[in-house]
């Protein structure tokens, strides 16, 4: 019997790229999800995002966070696809999510080194000492209640997020193995968007956009002016 989505996801995540499209959801979205038979689960998590005081990571589009006691680093992928210029691609983001701590530390060190010559590697540090060694501090934290739906046959996950600072956003996500078929993922996302009746052609803001706009407008403006957000 093939493994179900949730059983595959943990394994896939280690070596995958997340292709995602955000959307604004309403009561109809929820109704449609129930009608198309998506399996559902609900959970809650608290995210803490870390960066240096000069924002070396986020200014390189690298997002370091702690969620449910685990470290995760989201960074842009360098892969290009033929569908790059399409409307479907323009509405989506693509990030590699790294969950292996030594690899996260290595990547963070490299980014810091690129920005500052005298940063040392700190790979063998115990516990969370690497954070202070690398001058990383928490710059954003919030709790999300997430309802996740899965369309098993497409391998698509749809999340409806409610953040505790008062922002609701949905996202359609497909995991693609590294070097895999991003074009097909974009098509799955487009098909799902149509099923959900999403017609907008504007990129929708993520939770971090709204959080920073409200709580750190100076950094938000900087990320906007550098086209990171
Ligand atoms: C629309 C959009 N979203 C995110 C970014 C960049 N970015 C900003 S913060 C950030 C990190 C948070 O990513 P996001 O997908 O928004 O959060 P979440 O849904 O909680 O993560 P998941 O559980 O899916 O892993 C990124 C990649 C961007 N430039 N544009």
From TrEMBL:
Cellular component, GO annotation? cytoplasm
InterPro entries from the entry? CYTH-like_dom_sf (IPR033469), CYTH_domain (IPR023577), THTPA (IPR039582), ThTPase_euk (IPR012177)
| Keyword match Calcium | no
Where does it localize?
Cytoplasm
Alphabetically sorted, this entry's keywords are: Acetylation, Cytoplasm, Hydrolase, Magnesium, Metal-binding
Tell me its cofactors: Mg(2+)
Q: What is its EC number?
A: 3.6.1.28
Q: Which domain of life is it from?
A: Eukaryota
Q: Name one GO molecular function term.
A: magnesium ion binding
An example GO BP is:
thiamine diphosphate metabolic process
User: What is the catalytic activity of this protein?
Assistant: thiamine triphosphate + H2O = thiamine diphosphate + phosphate + H(+)
Which enzyme class? hydrolase
Domain CYTH, which positions?
16-217
Give the residue spans that cross the bilayer: none
- What does the record give as the function of this protein? Hydrolase highly specific for thiamine triphosphate (ThTP).
Q: How does it assemble?
A: Monomer.
Similarity remark: Belongs to the ThTPase family.
Name assigned to this protein: Thiamine-triphosphatase
| Species | Xyrichtys novacula (Pearly razorfish)
Taxonomy, top ranks, is:
Eukaryota, Metazoa, Chordata, Craniata, Vertebrata
């Amino acid at each position: 019997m093939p493994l179900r989505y949730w059983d595959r996801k943990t394994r896939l995540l280690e070596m995958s790229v997340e292709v995602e499209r955000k959307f604004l959801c309403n009561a109809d979205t929820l109704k449609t999800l129930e009608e198309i038979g998506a399996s559902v689960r609900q959970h809650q998590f608290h995210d803490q995002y870390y960066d240096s005081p000069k924002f070396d990571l986020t200014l390189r589009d690298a997002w370091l966070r702690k969620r449910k006691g685990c470290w995760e680093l989201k960074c842009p992928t360098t892969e290009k696809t033929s569908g790059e210029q399409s409307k479907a691609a323009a509405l989506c983001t693509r990030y590699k999510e790294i969950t292996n701590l030594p690899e996260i530390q290595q990547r963070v060190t490299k980014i810091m080194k690129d920005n500052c010559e005298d940063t040392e590697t700190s790979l063998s540090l115990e516990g969370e000492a690497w954070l202070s060694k690398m001058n990383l501090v928490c710059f954003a934290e919030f709790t999300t209640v997430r309802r996740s739906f899965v369309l098993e046959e497409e391998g698509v996950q749809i999340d409806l997020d409610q953040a505790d600072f008062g922002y609701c956003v949905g996202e359609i996500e497909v995991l693609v193995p590294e070097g895999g078929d991003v074009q097909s993922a974009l098509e799955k996302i487009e098909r799902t968007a149509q099923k959900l009746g999403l017609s907008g052609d504007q990129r929708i803001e993520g939770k971090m956009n709204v959080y920073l706009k409200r709580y750190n407008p100076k950094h938000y403006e900087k990320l906007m002016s550098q086209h990171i957000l």
